[in-house]
Design brief:
The chain is mainly alpha-helical and 92 residues long. The protein has a domain of 39 residues: Histone, subunit A (Orthogonal Bundle), CATH 1.10.20. Helices cover 42% and strands 4% of the residues. The chain has 3 helices and 2 strands; from the N terminus they run αααββ. A two-stranded antiparallel ribbon has the order 1-2. It starts with a helix and ends in a 7-residue tail after the last strand. The mean pLDDT is 86.
Length: 92
């Protein structure tokens, strides 16, 4: 990677890299890319691809009319007004 590519990546990542560190970043990126090139020569003959079955591990999202839950949740509010959390105004 060259300095122009590092600048482009920094811009896309919305990070600021000082001019004197650009060369260092380019060297570090190149070391990382060289390390990953080792994967190209790794012996993978006969190795089965790792596959997993996707399944939904989340609970179903179904509405509930449990008023006890509402009271427990609102009980955590520092301040409340009726059935709502009361918060400071943040928008004018």
């Amino acid at each position: 990677m060259n300095i122009d590519e590092i600048k482009k990546i920094a811009k896309l990542a919305r990070i600021e890299i000082a001019g004197e560190k650009l060369e260092s970043f380019a060297d570090e990126f190149n070391k990382i890319l060289e390390y990953f090139k080792q994967l190209d020569i790794a012996p993978t003959e006969g190795v089965e691809p790792f596959l997993f079955e996707e399944e939904n591990v989340w609970r179903s999202d179904s509405p509930s009319s449990n008023s006890d839950a509402r009271e427990r949740i609102l009980g955590n509010a520092p301040e409340r007004q009726d059935d709502f959390f009361k918060v400071k105004k943040v928008i004018e």
